[in-house]
Amino acid sequence: MMKGLVCGTCGYVAINGTAPDKCPVCQSPKEVFEEKDAIMTAENEGPTEKHVPVLKVIKQCGLIGEGCTDVHAKVGDIPHPMEPDHYIVFVDFYVDKEWVERVHLTPNLNPAAGAHVKASTGKLTAIEFCNKHGYWINEVDL
Ligand SMILES: [Fe+2]
Description:
CATH topology: Immunoglobulin-like
Number of helices: 0
Largest sheet: 7 strands, mixed
CATH class: Mainly Beta
Distance between the termini: 24 Å
Bound molecules: fe (ii) ion
């Protein structure tokens, strides 16, 4: 389990240790952030249902070229359910602990998301939020 500063409005998690003046996802003020020891890692995973994002880095970006990288995140090596009462709500992507992109998911989609990031080096982090089982994190080198 890891600590994070969680936005009380949209669920964004600041992972760099400080609450931003404004939430980068929903623009809520600093005051709505609360520290929670609620970000789960591979160590918290059960044997059957999987939540940790499996990350795949595609060095050759399909759109821009130099300086860009695509990242694919699949939730669980056993794909997570996407049912109306139990699904992955969003996946947030960060580079070097700074937020870059959120992908919203709905129950009719696959438990997977892609991000196109303006970086070719650094640490890529993904946090996914399951409506039943909370936050799960993973990271990979770009
Ligand atoms: Fe779940």
